[in-house]
Specification:
Helices cover 34% and strands 21% of the residues. It is α/β, with parallel strands linked by helices. It has 3 domains: 119 residues, 3-Layer(aba) Sandwich (Rossmann fold), CATH 3.40.50.12160; 229 residues, pyruvate-formate lyase- activating enzyme (Alpha-Beta Horseshoe); 61 residues, Nucleic acid-binding proteins (OB fold (Dihydrolipoamide Acetyltransferase, E2P)). The two termini are 39 Å apart. The structure holds iron/sulfur cluster.
């Protein structure tokens, strides 16, 4: 299995892996010995589509120089381009959409009888439940909990609602049961994800909210860290802010994709918050939880983005001092309203604005990390540094897996998976260095 794109897609891959391992399949990480290869794809933006196509073409070679007899392409790419893919990629045996992946075992069983290329791409209306097994493909001490599927926010540049359907929450008891199962398997950190976690419960006919879920997760013995990712700005209530502040198990960390700060651009993106509301939210979070680590993602080069809009964005980033920042060049996605908008920005200008923003962020992140020297942080030990076995490495509670920096441990011993107190002794743009204090 090669799973591309976001952690939400990874959870689908983990379900497929466990469903197959419960049949007669053995999971391997060696593509050369694999009889079946699955590429779980992403098609959110141009770069992601290219990465998916490259992976498919590369792994299709294993049908010639490996043992592979069945190549499966699942996820968002076939959900979006099934006709084109079927035409362009005859080497693929099966295409599976974003709603059909749980049937992977029966689909493979159906394949054995025919040489035809098969497609299982229905409406993206499925939401998996805890009755389905799921393998944790992340390191044993952390995992992702997908609390909902789809999105109804319909930002004008985004194709996801068409690929994953309207937003729908998973049942509260199902999520608590899954979290308990993960913790029983050794997970200490749960990363709460969906397209917009603040929507949790909005489609239920009782007063269940994201806070309800977090309180239930916090009551699970053995669970140490609860991290909140993909929170839509206007869905962050005072109650949620207080819970992040007061619940020790909730990491003082919040990922709030805001995409831009200029009102005309936010309006054209069909985002619900305006610039002042976003500024007020950041100020409130910093005021209520002074040591919170804030992550956001921004889009540069959206149609109609003027030099002044971008200057305003640079100034906003300078003032807001995000701890973590992801920047994307606007990707013109056919089928989205923004793709038809006038005043499309050139690729050269997009890249220029991207580089400017990332350079500024590296400088800001370096400065922010310097302010942590002498302070202590909770750190989860994740193994040995790439450079030398003499150096342990880990992540602080203010660093998310896979997307944020790391911590290098220069003194003290601990086992992998342990959560320790660490004093920060030095830092770089994105990483921290320190010593275990207990
Ligand atoms: S919130 Fe907007 S950008 Fe995010 S998945 Fe939903 S529609 Fe797409």
């Amino acid at each position: 299995m090669v799973s591309l794109g976001c952690p939400k897609n990874l959870v689908d891959a983990e379900v497929m892996l466990e469903v197959l391992s419960k049949q007669e399949y053995e999971i391997t990480t060696d593509e050369k010995v694999a009889d079946v290869i699955i590429v779980n794809t992403c098609s959110f933006i141009k770069e992601a589509k290219q990465e998916s196509i490259d992976a498919i073409l590369d792994l299709a070679e294993r049908k010639h120089d490996g043992r592979c007899h069945t190549l499966i392409v699942s996820g968002c790419l076939p959900q979006r381009y099934q006709e084109e893919l079927a035409r362009e990629l005859p080497e693929v045996d099966i295409f599976i959409g974003t709603g059909d992946y749980p049937r992977i075992a029966e689909i493979l069983a159906e394949k054995t009888g025919t040489e035809d290329q098969l497609r299982y791409i229905g409406d993206p209306d499925y939401i998996y439940d805890e009755s389905l097994p799921r393998l944790n493909s992340s390191p044993a001490w952390y995992s992702y909990l997908k609390i909902g599927e789809g999105c109804s926010n319909c930002c004008s540049y985004c194709i996801i609602p068409q690929l994953r359907g309207p937003y729908r929450s998973r049942p509260l008891e199902a999520l608590v049961a899954e979290a308990e199962r993960l913790v029983a398997r050794g997970v200490k950190e749960i990363n709460v994800i969906s397209q917009d976690i603040t929507r949790y419960g909005s489609d239920m006919d009782d007063d269940t909210t994201l806070e309800t879920l977090i309180r239930r997760l916090a009551a699970i013995d053995g669970l140490r860290w609860i991290r909140l990712l993909y929170a839509y700005p206007d869905g962050i209530s005072d109650g949620l802010i207080a819970l992040i502040r007061d619940e020790p198990k909730v990491c003082k960390y919040l990922d709030i994709p805001i995409q831009h700060i200029s009102d005309p651009v936010l309006k054209a993106m069909k985002r619900r918050s305006n610039g002042q509301q976003i500024r007020d939210l950041i100020a409130k979070l910093r005021n209520e939880i002074p040591d919170i680590a804030l992550r956001t993602s921004l889009i540069v080069g959206f149609p109609g983005e003027t030099v002044d809009d971008f200057a305003g964005l640079m100034q906003f980033v300078e003032q807001s001092q995000f701890d973590r920042l992801g920047v994307f060049c606007y990707s013109r996605e056919e089928g989205t309203p923004a793709a038809a908008m006038p005043e499309q920005v050139s690729e050269r200008i997009k890249r220029e604005r991207y580089r400017k923003l990332m350079r500024a962020q590296a400088r800001l992140s370096f400065r922010r990390n310097r302010t942590l020297i002498g302070k202590t942080e909770q750190v989860i030990v994740e193994g040995y540094s790439e450079e030398t076995e003499l150096l342990l490495k880990g992540r602080s509670s203010r660093q998310a897996p896979d997307i944020d920096g790391q911590v290098y441990i220069t003194a003290g011993t601990a086992d992998v998976g342990d959560i320790v107190q660490l004093r920060i002794t030095d830092s770089s743009d994105y990483d921290l260095i320190g010593e275990i204090v207990d």
